[in-house]
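User: Can you help me understand a structure? I only have the sequence.
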Amino acid sequence: MIRGLDTLRQNIDVLLKRQENASSNIANVNTTGYQAKKLFQSTLKQVRFQNYQGGPNVNQRTEIGDFTFGNQLDGAALNPEKGAFKQTGRSTDFAIQNDGYFTVKMPNGTTAYTRNGNFKVNAQNEYVTQEGYQVLSAAGTAVAAGQNPAFGIVAFDNPQQLESQGNTYYTTTQTPHNVQTAQVLNGYLEQSNVATADEMVSLIQTGREFEANQKALSTNNETLNKAVNELGKI
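Assistant: Let's start by predicting it. Here is the structure, written out as tokens:
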């Protein structure tokens, strides 16, 4: 019974993470350049159960069978598919038509990547993000504002493994490679690639699994209550 509580707790923790992820995706459905994140889970390995309550003296080993102690999260992956393009007409908006990411210098000096091309121009006539982060060229220098800006567009062998830093910025330990034939549209922005219908279905499914686990928890609690308060009196 106590083990059952541990199993239910682990299942509920997994469901909470799934709910948080789906909610985050839905909340960013209108965020420019946002890439949806998907969680992966698996069932824990089965373990053999036995006791020593067999035989006339209740001391012989009895095989009960296999049991699985719930599920676990194996990791997360980004959806690298491109979102729809929206025409804005603004000269400081850019969208990458093919695969790849804009390169950005973060305040701490590290490099991040984004598909959000909603830029602005600073006092030095350089393109920066809305947060003021410097947009870099392939040579790692600031990109001057003007016609045909030399953005440093890079791609990765496994873009699903990029790690989100919030605000559509991503980092990775992978080595990027420059996209020599990058096609960048001026006056357009790439919209979020979140599939709202899929995320809503995921939330509904997670909610139903919550209900099933709550019922199992209630049953387990009632059984434990009888074992402690009623059988203990005999």
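Now, to help you interpret it: The chain is about 25% helix and 30% strand. The chain has two domains: 2-78+196-233, 85-190. Let me know which part you'd like to focus on.
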